[in-house]
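Possible regression after last week's pipeline update?

I re-ran a chain I had predicted before the update to compare outputs. Posting the input and the new output here so someone can diff against the archived version. Not blocking, just want to make sure nothing changed silently.
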Amino acid sequence: MSHQKIRISSSMIAAINKEDFCPASFYAVYIARTAKSIPSLSMLSGSYFETLCLGKSAKGEETTDLPRLKSGEMSVAQQRIIKQAEVFKQMCIDRPIIIKNNQTQITIEYNEDYDLTGIIDFDGTIDNKPETAIFDLKLTGSLYHEHHYGNEPPWSWEFPYNKNFTQAYFYNYLYSEVNQVNAPFYYLVFDYK
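New output (post-update):
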């Protein structure tokens, strides 16, 4: 009898650590796959930013707009996100960052019950170095805002020492298993407030 394999992702791992963890919701979204999590405005903003920067966001989806004001105009936050996407594109020219592949899903078999999976924002080269690196775009309201997740100590992008870097380690592992190279991992963090 065949069974559906459980796909372990960094998002799944992060969901377990959330302060408002709900076992029923977790099961429906990550195990049974009968539901999808509802994206928050912050998540939509991140997808919008990735679409502006890379042409698409995770899973090949495109977020081409954000909720508008009652007047139909863009919010100040949306205008700032557009500006940060322009900063990213200019940074790619100035550094240079050469994008090879974007929004690449990597799935490897862990055992007969589990697969490990993740979507790499992009890989490429930076600063004219020959080795390929892994990049993850992050959009945050403020680099200085302290994040508090579950039982983890507070952290900010200004001082990320307490940040849980599971995603970076996880993506590096997936990438190295498929490509047989230990590529450096970079977060490219942009704020818009």
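Follow-up from reviewer: compared with the archived run. DSSP finds five helices and five strands in the chain. Marking as no regression found.
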